[in-house]
């Protein structure tokens, strides 16, 4: 006797619609939650720029002031690039300010005291940064001492070495070629009626690169059936970024042109953006910070990756030391004081997670720019330094609180 299978029950039309609506709502919620950290930081940056433009009657957006912001805070942005990678891996580095001081001191002794060429001082500073990074990476990766302790010891050690190298005195001035690293400009390469065309061309290329990269990322997510923002929203975001970038490029073009240090910073952002998002090393860094046990079981060479993370931080600290000593036209025993806190704050404000595994290079740079705009704006308003420190502390606290809130909301949604 053949048994006939019962006919499939058809869901009511209203139930199907409700399920579809629920699925669509979930996809939108997932998209908003996933993009909130990155998108929110850009919105906050634009809002803060607009706020201080109003409070300072437009002075904060003047060509000269925008140029000064880039020159004054470039070394913090360089440190933030390295610091966010350290934080993504679940570590912290408290020694970067002392490394900035020591590398600048070594460069000053060789160039100012010994009379060597300016480029020798730069190479020597970078070499010292590599050695320092390898020293700290060894203790963290192969001995197993927590990075907090190793870099805290490094902060004291390298500050003492700085005082020893300088003989507890300041050295200045550097040759003009060395000063060009932080204070030089590329101006007049293409000419222009009252403004620098080259700066505008570089800005346009940057916007085009951002648009192409964003479009390729969007196509890749669609290919893997991941939720993406609507195309009009994507276009609006690219246009907004393009307008902001070209506005700043126009301001720079009407001031002194394109700062050399901005070119250095742009190259670092592009290079480390590719490393963190496209390379095996970058994926391993995220894996270690996200789930150390899973990364180890997956075959990630955790010790080697951690070692090179700190070598990289040492190199970027040396670059920041070169920029800072170039801008200050000398080396001082107290140089770099509290720089580590500014770099850490930039990384967290830019979206890095306290527990590791989350963060982007661009986000850290934007976080650093937020700190720079706030500091510069409050200085223009004549606000006292203690109040400035208090405001920056509150902003950092709110950024970390926002990160924790997002984690709890994501956990409760599962």
From TrEMBL:
Protein location:
Cell membrane
Q: Which InterPro entries match?
A: ABC_transp_permease
Under the heading Pfam families, the entry gives:
BPD_transp_2
Keywords, sorted A to Z: Cell inner membrane, Cell membrane, Membrane, Sugar transport, Transmembrane, Transmembrane helix, Transport
What is its membrane topology?
Multi-pass membrane protein
Q: Where are the transmembrane segments?
A: 41-64, 70-89, 94-112, 118-135, 140-158, 197-219, 231-250, 256-275, 305-324, 344-374
Q: What is the documented function of this protein?
A: Part of the binding-protein-dependent transport system for D-xylose. Probably responsible for the translocation of the substrate across the membrane.
Q: What is this protein called?
A: Xylose transport system permease protein XylH
Organism of derivation = Pseudonocardia adelaidensis
């Amino acid at each position: 006797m053949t048994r006939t299978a019962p006919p499939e029950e058809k869901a009511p039309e209203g139930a199907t619609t409700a399920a579809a609506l629920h699925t669509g709502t979930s996809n939108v919620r997932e998209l908003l939650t996933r993009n909130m950290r990155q998108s929110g930081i850009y919105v906050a940056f634009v809002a803060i720029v607009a706020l201080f433009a109003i409070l300072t009657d437009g002075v904060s957006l003047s060509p000269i002031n925008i140029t000064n912001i880039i020159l004054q805070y470039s070394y913090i942005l360089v440190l933030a690039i390295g610091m966010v990678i350290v934080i993504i891996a679940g570590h912290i580095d408290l020694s970067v300010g002392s490394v900035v001081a020591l590398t600048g001191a070594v460069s000053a002794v060789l160039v100012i005291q010994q009379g060597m060429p300016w480029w020798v001082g730069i190479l020597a500073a970078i070499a010292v940064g590599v050695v320092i990074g390898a020293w700290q990476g060894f203790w963290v990766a192969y001995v197993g001492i927590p990075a907090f302790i190793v870099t805290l010891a490094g902060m004291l050690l390298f500050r003492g070495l700085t005082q020893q190298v300088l003989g507890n005195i300041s050295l200045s001035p550097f040759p003009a070629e060395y000063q060009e690293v932080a204070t030089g400009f590329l101006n007049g390469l293409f000419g222009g009626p009252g403004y620098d065309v080259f700066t505008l061309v570089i800005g346009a290329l940057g916007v085009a690169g951002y648009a192409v990269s964003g479009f390729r990322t969007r196509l890749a997510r669609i290919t893997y059936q991941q939720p993406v923002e609507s195309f009009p929203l994507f276009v609006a975001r690219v246009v907004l970024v393009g307008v902001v970038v070209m506005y700043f490029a126009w301001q720079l073009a009407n001031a002194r042109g394109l700062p050399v240090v901005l070119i250095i910073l742009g190259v670092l952002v592009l290079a480390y953006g590719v490393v963190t998002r496209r390379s095996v090393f970058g994926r391993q860094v995220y894996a270690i910070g996200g789930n150390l046990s899973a990364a180890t079981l997956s075959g990630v060479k955790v010790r080697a990756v951690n070692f090179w993370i700190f070598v990289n931080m040492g190199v970027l600290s040396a670059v920041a030391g070169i920029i800072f000593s170039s801008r200050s036209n000398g080396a001082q025993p107290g140089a770099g004081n509290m720089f580590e806190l500014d770099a850490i704050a930039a990384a967290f404000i830019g979206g890095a997670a306290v527990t590791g595994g989350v963060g982007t290079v661009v986000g850290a740079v934007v976080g650093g720019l937020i700190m720079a705009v706030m500091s510069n704006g409050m200085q223009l308003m004549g606000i006292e330094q203690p109040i400035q420190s208090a405001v920056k502390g509150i902003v950092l606290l709110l950024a970390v609180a926002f990160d924790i809130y997002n984690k709890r909301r994501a956990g409760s949604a599962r």
